[in-house]
């Protein structure tokens, strides 16, 4: 006898489920195959931050006890009170059903508690720097900062400029949304970024083609794709070459080849 089993799962719920399964699998690979260590932060907090944009945990919201209205007086006819109670229960039942249907994964009302010292991507970057990177024995530290991660890195430089300059060898930005003017990055930071950073941006031009910029910070080159979410993956070959050249240049007291290319954009201090 043949059997057919059909699952009817909303795309949104299926997408969330797949994301959780894939994320769990990737992190297992990072631990087993790459020998990386998973650490909970902040220390003793028991929370692992996977996405700095969601640095919070959800807890059930305490239920508020609503007192009965003064209109529900004892002198009200019993039949009328029963009708009101019945209507109230039916209304609550329909509301609860609607909430469950609208979001079946959240049957309870939740509130967000932001994680101590990691309540934003910027705070998270500084915390990781202070508690892990600054204390590491690594002589060459490299950053790959995608999208808002570029803004978080610039903020890290503003707060830990001397430490970053002494420890970081090179920074690869991929379609970064940082803005040195709005973030009020100083002249010395902008000069360091011009020499040690490169931003691979979304563009239909071939990989590493120079892209003009209005900001006086790091060179901008094409990531070889016009899709924002693919800029890191598409530019990895150039990024690792950039890191290799930066490491060799640091040893020989030279600058990475990428910063010496003839198509590099020159910026004048405004």
Q: Quick recap of the structure?
A:
With 270 residues, the protein is of the alpha/beta class.
Order of helices and strands: HEHEHEHHEHEEHH
Relative helix content: 40-55%
Number of helices: 8
Give the rounded overall mean pLDDT: 77
- End-to-end distance: 79 Å
Low-confidence stretches: 44-52, 68-72, 259-270
The coarse overall form would be elongated
Number of distinct beta strands: 6
Supply the helix-strand structural class. alpha/beta
Oligomer status: single chain
Beta-strand level of the residues, as a percent range?
Answer: 5-15%
Cα-atom radius of gyration: 27 Å
> In what order do the strands lie side by side in the largest sheet?
3-4-5-6
Description:
The chain is built from eight helices and six strands. With 270 residues, it is of the alpha/beta class. Helix 3 crosses helix 4 and helix 4 packs across helix 5 (161-167). Mean pLDDT is 77; it is low at 44-52, 68-72 and 259-270.
Structural features:
four-stranded parallel beta sheet; 270 residues; alpha/beta; two-stranded antiparallel sheet; disordered C terminus
Spell out the blueprint of helices and strands.
Layout (H helix, E strand, L loop, with lengths): L10 H22 L23 E5 L17 H25 L7 E5 L6 H13 L7 E6 L1 H12 L1 H7 E7 L12 H10 E5 L18 E3 L8 H22 L4 H4 L10
Parallel strand pairs: 3-4, 4-5, 5-6
Antiparallel strand pairs: 1-2
């Amino acid at each position: 006898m043949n059997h057919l089993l059909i699952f009817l799962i909303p795309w949104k719920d299926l997408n969330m489920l797949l994301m959780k399964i894939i994320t769990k699998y990737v992190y297992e690979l990072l631990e087993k195959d790459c020998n990386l260590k998973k650490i909970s932060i902040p220390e003793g907090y028991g929370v692992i931050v996977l996405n700095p944009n969601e640095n919070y945990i959800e807890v059930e919201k305490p239920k508020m006890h609503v007192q009965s209205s003064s209109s529900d007086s004892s002198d009200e006819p019993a039949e009328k009170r029963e009708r009101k109670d019945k209507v109230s229960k039916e209304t609550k039942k329909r509301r609860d059903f609607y909430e469950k249907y609208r979001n079946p994964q959240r049957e309870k009302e939740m509130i967000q508690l932001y994680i101590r010292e990691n309540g934003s991507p910027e705070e998270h970057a500084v915390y990781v720097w202070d508690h892990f990177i600054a204390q590491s024995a690594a002589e060459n530290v490299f950053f790959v900062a995608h999208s808002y991660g570029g803004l978080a890195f610039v903020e890290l430089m503003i707060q830990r400029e001397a430490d970053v300059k002494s420890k970081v060898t090179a920074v690869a930005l991929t379609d970064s949304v940082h803005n040195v003017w709005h973030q009020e990055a100083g002249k010395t930071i902008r000069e360091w970024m011009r020499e040690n950073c490169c931003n691979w941006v979304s563009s239909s031009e071939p990989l590493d083609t120079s892209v003009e910029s209005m900001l006086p910070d790091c060179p901008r080159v094409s990531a070889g794709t016009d899709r924002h979410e693919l800029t890191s993956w598409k530019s990895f070959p150039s990024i690792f070459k950039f890191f290799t050249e930066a490491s060799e240049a640091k040893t020989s007291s030279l600058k990475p080849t990428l910063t010496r290319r003839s198509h590099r954009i020159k910026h004048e201090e405004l």
